[in-house]
Amino acid sequence: GSGAKAASAQPPITVPDFVQSMKSFYKSPQEAFQALDKNNDGLLDLSEFVGCTGAFTPPLTRKQAEYAFDGFDTYHDKKVNTTEFFGVLKTGRFYQTPEALEAVRMPLSKVTMADFKNRMGAVTPQDAFDALDKDTDGFVARKEFLGSTKAFVPPLTRQEAEYALSGLDADHDGRLRPGEFRGALELGGFFRKPEVLAAAGYGPEAETPVRATPSKQGPAPAKAKAQVPVRDEEPPPHGRGEGDG
C-alpha cells in the first residue's frame, strides 16, 4: 500500500519541493491546476500531470512526478481533483487521509468563463472592456476591475473578481490589455498563455491605441440558449423470470 511509500526515509520529492518547482512556472496553485488540467474536466490524470511537471524548473523526473501524483491522489481513483490538489498543498505533505483534507478544505471562489460571460450581460467584449476602462487609457487596471464588480449581474464577489482578473491577465503585469480581455472571452477560457492569444490574433501588436471614444453601440440581442438534447433513458432490461409464472 501507499503507507509504506509514505513512511520511507527519503521521498523522491516533498510538497515544499513541488511548490518551489511549480512557482517557477505558475503564479498560483489555481493557475497551475488549470494549466495541468489539459482537457478542462476538473481532474488531473497521470499523463497530464507527468507531461506538465516535466516543464517545471527544475523539471520533475518521472519518478518524482509519479510519487507526487500518488501523493495527491488521496481517494486512490487515479485522478486528482481540486480538493486533493489544494488540500495536499495546504497540509504540506503528500499521502494525506481524506479526513485531513476535509479538515483544511476551503471553498474556492472560482468562476467559470461561461458564468463570467453570462454575468457580463449581452454586451460585446469590446464594449465591456471600454466600460471597465474608467480612465480610458486603453488598459483596465486592477483597481478599475475590482471596483467594477457591481457591473456584473449578479455582482462578482471580491474573490471571484480576483480569480477572474488573474485568469484574464495573461502576461501577469497587473492590468488588462484589450487583447487579453477579448481573447480570453472569445477563446472561451481563463488562464490563456500570451503565445496562445498572440497566435489567435490577440497579441499586443494587433492592438491600435484608441484615441477617439468609440461610438457606443446598443447591447447585442441576447442569444437564445441552445437546447441541450435530452437523452431518453432506456428502461432497464427485465431480469429473466421476473414477473413470470
Automatic annotation (TrEMBL):
SMART domains: EFh. Residues 24-59, 126-155, 156-191 form the EF-hand domain. One of its GO terms (molecular function) is calcium ion binding. SUPFAM superfamilies: EF-hand. Gene3D superfamilies: EF-hand. Keywords: Calcium. Residues 202-245 are annotated as: Disordered. Pfam families: EF-hand_7. Residues 230-245 have a biased composition (Basic and acidic residues). InterPro entries: EF-hand-dom_pair, EF_Hand_1_Ca_BS, EF_hand_dom. This is EF-hand domain-containing protein. It comes from Pyrodinium bahamense.
